[in-house]
């Protein structure tokens, strides 16, 4: 292996899943120790640019703090008599579909990451090759044109920077949002924005909406023996 090459190891997502089905595996990337050391130095500079509503890969933040924040917002709204609709968005294969040119432009324009750091990150993403190893058998190498390394130090942080614009998109429509890596939760009271907002979100990331898993939940109070009802669609 050399500095621009990395090994991908398929790791099954959950023990109960069928090991014969390819989609049940997550590709974990392994890089050289020297690269990981350099990544940790760069990561310290990137942390300060993460959005406040992103609970992933930040000190004193976790899935638990993200859930508590969303739960608190919902309970406060329900106490005030509102109906709350919770929408959960999850990009399919988010780590593998990041557009490098969009990411590089965003780092410079939105976060002010420029100079040597910007050039290094550009070099870090370009001309990379990968190969897969299973049971000590290695595949042929291939060039990586999109995505960031899942399992690396910088990969998750670069993904967080990539999805950062969603905060402004949702806030412009008065929507509360919480992000954890490629998982996004937004909740609104008494109304649901249509697909146009989700389209803006997907377009800003250079990803098609078909790459989205969308789920919705409704919270609120209803009279005794009656179902809580609301009309909404996406």
Automatic annotation (TrEMBL):
<protein>
    <submittedName>
        <fullName>RNA-directed DNA polymerase from transposon BS</fullName>
    </submittedName>
</protein>
<feature type="domain" description="Reverse transcriptase">
    <location>
        <begin position="1"/>
        <end position="234"/>
    </location>
</feature>
<dbReference type="InterPro" id="IPR043502">
    <property type="entry name" value="DNA/RNA_pol_sf"/>
</dbReference>
<keyword id="KW-0695">RNA-directed DNA polymerase</keyword>
<dbReference type="Pfam" id="PF00078">
    <property type="entry name" value="RVT_1"/>
</dbReference>
<keyword id="KW-0808">Transferase</keyword>
<dbReference type="GO" id="GO:0003964">
    <property type="term" value="F:RNA-directed DNA polymerase activity"/>
</dbReference>
<keyword id="KW-0548">Nucleotidyltransferase</keyword>
<dbReference type="InterPro" id="IPR000477">
    <property type="entry name" value="RT_dom"/>
</dbReference>
